[in-house]
Design goal:
The chain has six helices and 20 strands. The chain is an alpha+beta fold. 28% of the residues are buried.
């Protein structure tokens, strides 16, 4: 026997085994579509193919396989399509599993802006864990079965709370959590309820770091026990502000909702609240007519005791002078937080050298 004959026999035997598997699958799935006599006929034909496949007669293998296929086609019109249907079903299952993973467990997110530089760069692509914060009921804001709650210092993805960009996904760091009463930024240093979050020059702070613009300076910040990097503009004069409780005696039609707001103290001056224009946006914050670093500041609607209420969070970007965050549009409710950023799975387009940017792949996000 030549090598070509041997290969031909192996190929024919493999084809025979595939046909046997197909016939048995059809018998198992659709036994009620066959009469007893037809079922016996198909099983007998399978036995003949099995016997032929054990021998070395290539003609016998091919003939018995062809007769089995003809019998299947004659008895069941969809016999030849069974393999195709199996592939379609497998594909549908795979798509459903992928959809469930995306909706319930994990989701990819691409960094669109520089608000979290130096921690995250434009072009970073992240995996976001959704399951720990609970499953969102489709087409609602209802979360069910949350495992954990967001913590101070977590970087989270959430649905936009900014009237200028509704229904977009944002990513920021949680700075204020339920119970906080005063969030203060004084001379580029953060204070939370009087507790200082000191910053120090990051290693090589005066040196060129390609992650940050040349006009910025890199610092390490201790956010009440959680250390991370932040940047501030070098040439911009620091301006202080503090969010504190304030009672509004008259707020027109919204008087019932005005019992506990936040107002702004900018450079030691109390911001005037315009009572004749205190329109609530999305029910959570109130416009204040001051600007800090070009951002419109807003007073936040909080609970009656003047603290951040349960299930609300104050967000900030690590690029402190170039981030539109809770300083502009207020608190973010828990039911709008989609998940916690876990790690970078791909990175491209930030301006770093190719090798440096690729080295970011796999970095855990802190």
């Amino acid at each position: 026997m030549t090598i070509w004959q041997s290969r031909g026999i192996k190929k024919a035997a493999q084809h025979a085994r595939d046909e046997i598997r197909r016939a048995r699958r059809v018998i198992e799935k659709y036994p009620r579509l066959l009469k007893d006599s037809q079922l016996k006929q198909l099983k007998a034909q399978i036995e003949k193919v099995e016997l032929a496949a054990q021998g070395a007669d290539i003609a016998a293998i091919k003939n018995s396989t062809a007769r089995l296929h003809e019998s299947g086609e004659r008895l069941l019109p969809f016999y030849s399509r069974s393999v195709f249907l199996e592939w379609v079903r497998t594909l549908v299952y795979a798509l459903l599993i992928a959809l469930c993973i995306r909706v319930v467990i994990l989701e990819a997110f691409r960094i669109p802006s520089s608000s979290l530089v130096p921690t995250l760069l434009v072009g970073d692509q992240l995996i976001v864990a959704k399951l720990p914060y609970g499953v969102v009921v489709p087409w609602t804001d209802i979360k069910i079965a949350p495992i954990i709650r967001p913590k101070r210092g977590d970087i989270v993805v959430f649905r936009s709370h900014d009237p200028m960009t509704p229904d977009q996904n944002f990513i920021k760091r949680i700075v204020g959590v339920p119970g906080d009463r005063k969030i203060q930024l004084r001379d580029n240093e953060l204070y939370i309820d009087g507790r200082h979050c000191p910053i120090s020059d990051s290693q090589g702070g005066d040196q060129v770091d390609s992650r940050i613009p040349p006009t910025a300076r890199l610092y390490d910040e201790d956010l009440l026990g959680k250390r991370h990097e932040v940047i501030y503009e070098r040439m911009r004069t620091p301006r202080d502000y503090v969010l504190q409780p304030q009672y509004l005696e008259n707020c027109g039609e919204n008087n019932k909702l005005a019992e506990s707001y936040r107002y702004l103290i900018l450079d030691g001056q109390v911001s005037p609240l315009s009572h004749d224009k205190c329109e609530l946006t999305a029910g959570y914050y109130f416009p204040v007519h001051h600007r800090v670093h070009g951002e419109l500041q807003r007073a936040l609607l909080l609970s009656e005791d003047g603290a951040i209420p349960p299930d609300y969070f104050f967000m900030m970007g690590d690029n402190r002078d170039n981030s539109r965050d809770s300083r502009a549009w207020g608190l973010v409710p828990f039911n709008q937080i989609k998940g916690k950023a876990l790690f970078i799975y791909w990175s491209w387009g930030s301006g770093l050298s190719g090798a440096r940017q690729l080295l970011r792949i796999g970095d855990i996000i802190h």
